[in-house]
Amino acid sequence: MQGYKSILKSIVPMVLILLLLFNYGNDFLLQIHLFLSNLKNVNTKDVGISLALYLLSVYIFAERWKLVLNSLGYDLKTSHLFPVIFGAIPINNLTPANRIGGEPLRMMWVKKDFGVNYSDAFVSILFERFVEAIPVLLMMGYVISTMLPFIKTYFSSIYLVYLLLASLIILFPVYLLKSTIKKYLNHIILYQYKLRKTFFSTLFLSSTVWLLDILRLKFITLSLGLQLPLKVIVVLSLMYLILGSIPLSAGGLGVVEGGLIMVLNFFGISVVVAAGIVMIERFISYILASLIGSVFLLHYGGLKLWKESKLHL
To answer: Is the model's pLDDT at 301 over the cut of 50?
Structure first.
């Protein structure tokens, strides 16, 4: 079974790349030339602002986690947790599905360095995810409301059926995992008296991170001279989350890039420009973030802790 999973994880990114080549392969060399020419004209100031917004988001993640752990009785500072949050990023980028590897490392790291027991660390992260789902759902509602006229105009009834089937496929795993989800919610309920005082501050910081993510993507598109509508930026942000959560390749490599290029092309953006947007975004969130996070991993002993845990096997 593991062998089949490994083969599947290798095939899916390749299929996405082949789809791109199949659709746009007629003038592929020309596209490459235009793509490289496009990157030469990138506004580095806008890229720098995008990087600064990404770093600010990581700091807010640390601040948010600090508030949650403080409510559980741990006297921690944001500066304590910032290296942990950043150090988890390269681990996330090396493991399938967004945050699947970094979260266990976070729990082990705060246990070793600050004495946070596993149960409290687990509940704190679970509470973050629970609250973070609220702005995500609001964004989804905004996207659906703005896209409905477009869907009615450009899609036939058969495509609406496909859309309904896709929605059912997405919701089916939720139905299968309802007992597990209920168990996780029960964990939060047990801690509700401690966590409720930090609910609104956690919600505010979670919403702020998503606003910064949208703003960051806006500056990335501006760096290429584009003025994309807000709904396209929001769709891009949500699709990044969804595609990065699919456990098919390390850090979503191939899946994220191919998927985002197709999404942007759906909105009428050329493959050349779409590839430029995705490349700049991944350069910031994947390459630079992993390099910076690796420094924290090495300096604070996170890498040794990760290897000793054998979670990477």
So the answer is: yes
* 3-state SS class at 49: helix
DSSP label at residue 284? I
Q: Which residues, 6 or more positions from 168, have their beta carbon under 8 angstroms from its beta carbon?
A: none
CA dist., res. 173 & res. 160, Å (int): 21
Residue type, 79: S
Backbone angles phi, psi at 95, to 5 degrees: -115, 150
Distance of alpha carbon 140 from its chain centroid, rounded? 15
Its sign, for the CA torsion 148, 152, 155, 158, is: positive
**Closest CA relative to residue 257, chosen from 284, 231, 281:** 281
Cβ atoms of 255 and 246 closer than 8 Å: yes
CA distance 169 to 271: 28
Highest mean pLDDT among 139-148, 173-182, 237-246, 302-311: 237-246
d(CA 17, CA 224): 23
pLDDT at 53: 96
287 DSSP assignment: I
Question: Quick one: tokens of 12?
Answer: 């899916």
DSSP code at position 96? B
In single-letter form, the type of residue at position 5 comes to: K
Whether pLDDT at 136 is above 90: no
DSSP annotation of 249 reads: S
Structure tokens at 140: 């989804």
Alpha helices per DSSP H over the chain: 2-24, 28-40, 44-71, 78-92, 102-114, 118-154, 157-176, 178-190, 192-195, 199-222, 230-244, 255-266, 271-282, 289-300, 302-309
**Token pair 């396209």 in the structure block, residue:** 232
CA angle 223, 226, 231 (to 5 degrees): 115
Structure token digits, residue 43:
């506004």
Q: Which residues contact 3 (CB under 8 A, 6 or more apart)?
A: none
